[in-house]
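Reader question, answered in our methods column.
A reader sent in the components of a multi-part assembly and asked whether the whole thing could be modeled at once rather than chain by chain. We filled in our standard form and ran it. Here is what they sent:
COMPLEX SIZE: two components
ENTRIES:
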Amino acid sequence: MRKALSLCWSLVCCGVVYPARATGDVKREVRPRELRVCADPANLPYSNDREQGFENQIASFLAHELHATLSYTWWAQRRGFLRNTLNAGLCDVVIGVPVGLERAQLTEPYYRSSFAFVTRRDRHLGDLRSLDDARLRELKIGVPLAGDDGANPAPAHALSRRGMVSNVIGFSLWGEYERKIPAAVEAVVQRTLDVALLWGPLAGASAKKSPEPLTVRLLNEQRDAGIPLAFSIAMAVRESDAPLAAELNAVIRRRRAALNQILRSAGVPLLDLEPQNREPHHARP
Amino acid sequence: MPSQRRPDAPIVRPSAALLTWGLVACCGLSCQKHAEIKPKPEHAPLANANAARLRAGAASEDGQWPMPGKNYENTRFSGLDELNRDNAKNLRLVWTQKTGVERGHEAAPLAVADTLFVVTPYPNHLLAFDLHQPGSPPKWTFVPETVPAAQGVACCDVVNRGAAYAHGRVYFNTLDAQSVAVDAATGKEVWRVKLGDVTRGETITMAPLVVDSQVFVGNSGGELGVRGWLTALDTETGKINWRAWATGPDSDVLIGPEFQPFYESDRGKDLGVCTWPVDQWKIGGGTAWGFVSYDPDLDLLYYGTANPGPWNPEGRPGANKWTAGIFARRPATGHAVWFYQWNPHDVFDHDGINENVLFDMTVAGQTRKVLAHADRNGYLYILDRTSGEVLSASPFGPISSSTGVDLKTGHLNLVPEMIPKLGQVTRNICPAAPGAKDWQPMAFSPKTGLLYIPHQNLCMDEEGLEANYIAGTPYVAAAVRYRPGPGGSLGKLSAWDPALGKAVWTIEERFPVWSGALTTAGDLVFYGTMDGWFKAVDATNGKLLWKYHTDSGIISQPVSYRGPDGKQYVAVLDGVGGWAGAVVVGDLDPRDQSGANGFVNPMVELKNVTKKGGAVYVFALP
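And here is the structure of the entire assembly that came back:
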C-alpha cells in the first residue's frame, strides 16, 4: 500500500512538474490533484480557517504552482500536531516548521527569522538590539511561554539566565483566538509593558495591525548559551514522502522571490538564509 | 498554625534560588542511597502483625460500583467473593460491546442496579447497557455538545477517567471543560455547565466525586500554563458553590483560620503568591486531574495538585505553592485544613495528582487514620490524614533524583546533579517524567492489608536540544529519552505492605502497567496490560490464575459487581492510548539511536502486539 502510494506520487510528479515548466500550450492529460494541507484554524498571522494568514497564502501559491486544488485539515498547532495530522495521514504538507524538527521530512528552508523586540515608536527604543543591553534590567518585558519546564521559547531562558525574572512577564501563546494582536503587543501599545520579545513573524505581523506605530527589531544574537534564537523555517511532509519533498524543493528554489514577497507583505522580518547551512540539525553539546 | 509568617518574602533571583535548592538537596547527600525494590515473591504478608487493618470498604458489600474508586476511600476493593483463587481459572467472557470510539480508554465502568455505564474518551459519549437483557444491549447513549477544538488542546490523548453515580444521575466531565449530569433512567441531560476555557488550554479529564449534594471537579492543562482549581457544584443545578485555586492569594486558595498544615514550610500568608516570581502564579499550573477521596468521619476531601508550570524551573524560583502537593479541604466550604507538598519547586514534571487511598493502620502500637499515596517521585507515602504528617515515605521504584524524605521537615531531598538544566546532558534520571507511577490507580485489600500498585519502571536521559514548534513559535526542548529502569521490564504490579514499607511480591510486565488495579474479597487482583492481557492473580502471592486477550491494549480501571441475576461479574474496557500510548504509538522517533537499547524500541513493538480499539468486556463464571 505504501509502495503504491509512493509510486502514485512519482507519477504525479512527472505528470505535473515537467509539463508545467514547458512553455506554450500544455494540454497533456493531468490527473486531478489535491494539495492536502494541515493548518491551525485560528492562529493568525500564520493561518486561519478563513485563509487570511500568510501560510494560507503560501499554501495557495504552492497549489497553484503544482497545478493542484487546495484542501485543508484544521487542527490546533499544539503538542501532538504532527502526530495527529501529517503522520496520521490527514494531510500531506505542513507549511511552516523549524529546521531540526524530527518526525517528518523537511524541505529546504524557505525563510529564516529570529526573535524581535517590539516597542512603541514614541519610546525611542529602536536601538535595543541585544539581550545584554543594560536597559533591559530596568524595563518591563513580556515573553511568550509555550509549555512546561524546559519547553519554552528561547527568550524566556535567555532572560532568566541573566537573572531577569522579576521584570519579566510571561504570556501564554494560547487563548489568542479572539484577539487582533497578541496580548503582549497589546500591553506594549497600552504601555503596561515596555517591550515584548516575540518570534519575528508574530512581532512583525502584529506591528502592522497595531493602532499605534511600533518598532520591530530582530535580536543581534542568533544563539544564546547554545540555545538557538534564530530559526530557519521549512515545510514538512511525511518521512516516506520524498517525491513531494522534491517537488516542493523545486518550487522553493524556483520561486524564492515570490515566496519572499508573500512573507514581506505579511510583515515577517527576514534574516539571510545562508547561516543555516553551517548549522547542525541537532545541537548536541 | 500560621505562627511563622513570611509576608514579605523577597523575589529570589535565580542564582540565589538555585543556591537555596542546591543546599537543600545537598543536605541529603550524606545519606545518599539509591533504593531499589527487591521482589520477594515468597513473602507471606499476613504473617506480619503490623499489617494494615480493615476499615475501608468494611461496610457491607452492596455489589454496586458507583464511582471509579468504588468508595470514598478509593480502595477499589469489592467485598464479593464468589470469584476466588480456586475458580478464577474458569472465568469466561459473558458479553462485549464496542464503545464506538478508538482512543485511549482510561475510565472505570460503573455498575448500578441493572445498568452498566461507560463514558468514552472524547467526544465523551455516555453509554448505558441493560444488564437485565441477554447480551446487555445498549439502553441509551448520551452525546454531549462539545467543542472539537479540545482535541488539539489536550496534552496526553483525549482520555476520560470515568463518571460518578448518585441521586439517580450520572455525573461526568467533558474534554472541553464542561460538567454534565444525565438522568440515569432516561439518558436525558439534567444540566450542563461550562467550567473552563478550552481556548486557553484548559480541559477536564478527571472523574468527579459526588458527596451529598455536591459534585467535585478539577481541571487539566498545567503544561499549557493553566491555573489549577477544584470546584464544587450543586448536584441539582450544576451551580458553582465554591472554587479553590491552587495558586494565588489565600483568599483564592480558600486558606483561612481553619488551615493548620503540619510542616513549617506550608505556613505563612499568601504563599501561593510569594513562593513565585511576580505574577507567575497566574499561569502556575497545579491543576487537579486525579481522583478525589473523602473521609466522612473527619469530613475532609483529599486530592492532589499537578506540577507547576509553565516556565522553565529557573524562571520560577521558589517552592511554587500549592503545586505538586495534596490538600485536605472541607467539602461544604472548600476551606483548606492542611496541605503537604510532595515536590516543592518540581523540576521533573512530577504531578502530585496520584490517588490517595484511605484506611486505618497500626503504627507503633497505635491505630492511625492514614492515607497512602504512591507519588510520581517514586515514594510511597503514608500520611496521617487528620494532620498531614508524613509517617513514612518508602521508595517503591528505582530513584536516582532524590535521596529520601526528611520526616522532620517533610522535605524531599533532591540530588543536585540530577536536576535537569537545559542544554546540559543529564543521564540516568530515575524516575522519568511520567514518574514511578502515573495516574493509574492502585487498590487496597483490607483482607490482605496490601496495596496493589500498577506502575512503570522508567528512567530518562536528557541529551541536548531539539527544535519544536507550537502555535507558530519555535522553541527548543530537552531531547528526552525514556528507557527501562533496572531490571529491564517497563511495567510492574507490586503488592505493597504499607506497614513494612516494602513490596512483598512484584510482577514484571513488558510494558508500563497503565491500567488501574482491582482487588476482591476472593483474594484476587485484576489488572490489564498495554499489550492486551486482562489478568487475575492471587492477591497473596501474585501467582497468575487467569488471563484473557483483548483486541486492544488495556489502560482502564477494572471493576467488579453483582449482576441482577446475583452473580459476580468483572468488567474492563480496552482501548490503548493515554500518555503512555501516545509515547508509544506516535510521539517518539523510531529512528532515534537510543531506541535500540531504550524505551523507543519496546514501545514500537507494542504496535505489533496490539492495535487501536475501544470496547467493554464483562466476565463471570460459567
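What stands out: Chain A touches chain B through 66 residues (CB under 8 Å). Residues 100 and 281 of chain A are 5 Å apart (CA to CA).
Send us your own complexes using the same form.
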